[in-house]
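Researcher: We're teaching a course module on how sequence relates to structure. For the next exercise, students receive a sequence and then see the predicted structure as tokens, so they can try to spot secondary structure elements on their own. Here is the exercise chain.
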Amino acid sequence: MPTPTPAARAAGGEDLPLFDLTADGTSQALTTPTPTHDDLLVLDDAELTAVLDSLTTAQRDQLAAPYPARWLYPPEPGDPPRQVNVCAGCGGGCAGLRLVLDAAIDAVCIELMANPSATSTAAGCTVIQQDIRTLDPRHPGLRFTRRVMCTMPCIDWTRAGLGAGRDAKNLEILLDAIDQVAAHMGNVWVDGSEMCDHDDPADCDDACDDHMIEPSGVPITELWALVDDMTAQTAGLMLAPVLWILGLRSIGAPIESIVIEQSSALPETVQEYIQTELWTAGCEFVQWQDLDAAHFGSASNRNRAIMSAHWYRRPGPITIPEIRTNAALALGWPTDTRINTRGNRTTSGGNVFSLDRTIPAVTSKIRGWYCQATGRRFTIPEVCVLVGLPGDYPVTGSRTSQCQQLGDIFSPLVAAAAWGTLLGLPWPDLLRAYLARIYPTVHGRPDLAAVLFKARRRPTRVITDVEIRRYFLSDRPRLRVLAPARQEPDPVS
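Model: And here is the predicted structure for the students to work with:
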């Protein structure tokens, strides 16, 4: 049986097996031999497409794994930009892009834990449930990535984790690892003279033109081994942004914009090391800011260190809109509600707070918080609303797991501000429209009674369009609106 040509296979409309048995029981190849990753990385767009078209679905899936096989192909004009989300959690960063900004993205989210992975999947993300330390960013399936978002766990930087990441020895190991990973990815600038006649940069020495060194190609396991001696394992994950961004750049990925979310307790030295590596790589704009979700309309505080970077332009810092949300009004609870967080136990910080404000940061312990007067606990939809998500966000798992995920979330409101700034979108308007949808009693249309008469000290329930229509179609006396002075009032028709 002759081997079919790529064109014949394409015309056939279905894939053929890799091998077939002859009459005497031996196998014969029916398809093009599967190329290696290195083979794909040296092909230009047209050659790459031709080679991929000559393969079967099984071969393409094998080459692309664990990423979508379509990501092996160059993007078509009009395709949404490809994005990798490292340690994506339950998808708060993606929610900022999709739900708040209504942005078209083609994202792959990488997350180790099962329940956050299931939540992100249910929310519409393409999720790879795997340890990022086992994945190599120098994969041909990632060659056309344009955006990167990193939201690594942060417990070791915080008081809850006893600040283990800030230990001098741990910091020394991490910073040294960042230096070494940058060198292995070729992110070292060599100053030379103007005299150079080498065609291959690998032949250059210190006397040659200014140039970057060649990547070493060291296996990913060896790079992650650089932080094995840290006693704060989640702190060691801060190696990920440098490894992934520079790794993607080393295979020619056209990275344009980057967002990193981390604890506000992240040491400035770590921030500066990451910033320096991006500047060295040629990134035009890199900036860290401490941002609290409560200033972007969240009903709860969440103060985080946010890094935003753009390779080709300088969008400037993220503007803080100072939009506030009262948690009691957002949930529809009485404004005199007081929440108990620790039962009868007392602490120096207290164990009761008023719901009539923007409340303290939501943590996994919200699963046990309750109304002091009634004993009522927050439902999961209410916890979603408190952190800036719609109440129907599909959080998966036990109540404990759901509260943990929502306590760890990258605020979609801050994510929208960061990405909106980088992408040049009118994000403040989009944010306010989103807040009006999830907090209609706080940021929705004005109360009709407050418009027609005097504004009350406390907002009343928002009157819907259906109720307004029903009122004016009824036989009851019509409302009258006072016209300007010296004019007779006109009836509302």
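Model: If you want an answer key for the exercise: Residues 1-21, 447-462, 476-493 have pLDDT under 50 and may be disordered. The longest strand covers residues 285-292.
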